[in-house]
Amino acid sequence: MLNKLFGRTTPATPTPTSKIVWLDLGDLGDLVNPAGPHEQWQDHGLGLLRTILHQNGVMTDLLSTRACTSWEELAAQLPGYEVLIMNVRSYTFPAAYRAAQIFKQVNPQGMILTGGMHATVALDEMEAIPEFDRICQGPGENVIVELVKDPQSFPRVILGVGAKSMAEWPMIDRTLWPKPASKKLAKKFNWPLEPECGWGPGPVVTLLTSRVCPWQCVFCNENSYIPNMGRRPVEAVIDELNYLDRKYGVGSLVIHDSMFFQNPSWLEEWVEKYPRQANRVWPYWAAARADTVRQWPELFEALIKETRWDTVSIGFESGSDRVLRILNKECTEEDNYFTIDLLTRIGDEMERQGQKPPVFWSNIMLGIPGETHEDAIKTMRMVKYTKRILPSISFYAPYPGSALGHQLIAEGKSLMTKENYHRFPDDEKVKGIDYAFYRELLAGQYDDEVNRGLAQIRQERKDYRAALTKA
Length: 471
Ligand code: B12
Ligand code: SF4
What we know:
Number of domains: 2
Strand content: 5-15%
Distance between the termini: 64 Å
Largest sheet: 6 strands, parallel
Number of helices: 19
Radius of gyration: 23 Å
CATH architecture of the largest domain: Alpha-Beta Barrel
Number of strands: 12
Bound molecules: cobalamin, iron/sulfur cluster
Strand order of the largest sheet: 2-1-3-4-5-6
CATH superfamily of the largest domain: Aldolase class I
CATH topology of the largest domain: TIM Barrel
CATH class of the largest domain: Alpha Beta
């Protein structure tokens, strides 16, 4: 009945083909009738580890909380499985916790193997869930096969073993990813590639070329908990894209690297080879920092123009030096404005030549502890100043793993709980923050102040080419 209602493409209780099942995690219904495009993106940890397992003869079934519209629907698919595997990130911890309880009710003798970011950054929370029989911290590529084959020979908490370089990773078998679970979604999903989200045409290929960002922003600093590893060779990236294009047809790319614009020698090779060796120069989304753009402006410009880096994701975060220092962002207001001006100039030139101008996907945080109203107004001014922008604004969230997150959790100021790791941009996440002010700011109630300063900035920065030569 339920399946009929939702026009579902998968039976509620698929026949198990293995005793081992990997459970893909996310909000219920995200692969049925998703709230937005990003919820539909696939999990590379799952894809990589299932590929490794299958290449080593350890076959697994796949279920997804995202393909279910109720927990009962998940429960109905679990009987008969002996092992359940999950990749747990902080934002999927609530779903993992709930699914584990259900799995054990259905299969009391079953074994649950967990790994993922949350195991690395919040081991205490993972250990407190008795249903989690094994918890692997860190990377899993060189431990997953042995662990799944013989979980009993491992202690409850395991230190994972990763590859030294992404060159050692096999190409993900994308057919091991979950399918869209309704007819409506299936029509535009492009499985096993992914749907478009407004950044570039579908089918979309999401990919990783690098794994760790070396900076230490206090709200993130992933290099304190993800071991460093070599970048994927340029040619391997292009070969995979050409293969996917031949097989499924590629429309555009989303390069999920935390920091794509690092490691100039790799980027120079990308500028050199991607336009020549790829079947087509597919436009892409990828991330940069304002200080490195200022450090390597020619390289940035070459990437935009020659490799179709059409959507530049950039963590501007704030338009105030005070807050940028609180965040240990190591970028200044001036770096931010330099980068905005540079992309504006490049975009204007490309537009004059009849080409599509590049746009910023601009990550902005508000509600940062220590931020004043004036700081936040400066940030909104910077957003308004940016000519071509897709703003991605969220209230600061104290994630475990990050230095500031740990501090606020220890001080009892975090409002994120294991039942709800708030991760919606406008959730209230920290005690003592004046969220009412921020809502008013976003609703435009302080626009007079924002605009007043804007005129001044426009005045000061009308000759942005001068800023360029200062780099
Ligand atoms: C791609 C990505 C996304 C994508 C896609 C997510 C998806 N469906 O996979 C998008 C853009 C949607 C996204 C969104 C968000 N993300 Co994100 N994202 C990433 C990113 C850049 C790469 C993830 C990845 O694919 N890694 C590569 C794979 C191979 O690694 P992995 O999944 O961790 O798996 C490895 C290990 O964990 C381990 N492992 C995993 N499972 C298992 C299981 C077993 C049994 C074993 C043994 C081992 C094991 O082995 C794997 C191979 O080494 C990471 C940063 C990073 N460098 O990893 C952030 C990251 C995971 N995201 C993060 C955050 C905070 C978010 C957001 C909440 C941001 C926001 N405020 O909006 C949102 C929430 C999204 C949501 N649905 O609610 C944080 C998570 C922090 C945390 N403590 O968990 C990270 C770490 C970034 C950061 N530094 O802050 N994200
Ligand atoms: S916020 Fe961006 S630049 Fe800072 S550490 Fe994280 S990925 Fe790197």
